[in-house]
Design goal:
Blueprint (H helix, E strand, L loop, with lengths): L1 H30 L18 E3 L5 E3 L7 E7 L7 H15 L5 E7 L7 H9 L8 E4 L3 H11 L22 E5 L5 E6 L3 H17 L2
Parallel strand pairs: 3-4, 4-5
Antiparallel strand pairs: 1-2, 3-6, 6-7
Helix pairs in contact: 2-5
Amino acid sequence: MKNKNTTIVLVSFFIVFSTIFVGYFYKVTRSAKVVLPTYGNPGHKVADFSFINQDGKVITNKDVKGKIYVVSYFFSTCKGICPKMNEHLTKVYEAIKGKSDVLILSHTVDPKRDTVQALKEYSLRYDADAKQWMFLTGDKKQLYDMARYSYLISAQDDTTGVSIDKDFIHDNHYSLVDKDGRIRGFYDGLRMEEVDKLIKDINTLEKETD
């Protein structure tokens, strides 16, 4: 009888201890702050820039200061990956719409043909408000330099096999920039699961900078 009582006490103690431990572990893991990595060399930040958006407005680094933004590269006559990448960006756009501290910057790699008027017509396909989703054109060298050296997007061949420029073709990734101008993530714009992760990471950055 004594052994039976001892067993009951031990089992009860184990159950109580397990419940407390599981509860504490759940609380700790739930409250643990998610921190996104920072990419590039130590101290790397996006350089100053000056481009023109689809409304003909000059956009500089001052316009994105203190904001989170997603960066992509494309060209309006692209028949390869661009349509799919921009279609996927509409999901991001819907998720951030109305948030004054989050933007999308889509840069052309073909500024000769992607004039302000061309970009305006292109942006209408996605019902893009220029205040939050900007399609940018400008100096070709600066567009390319920003991709390589600021946003850390690598060059690759277009899926159509037709290069508009032997020097550079847009990458299929988006970059995520935080409010301090640091690169905090890269996402394959052709994969919806990556787009979902981008949206989640934007939310994480918003909490990080609150």
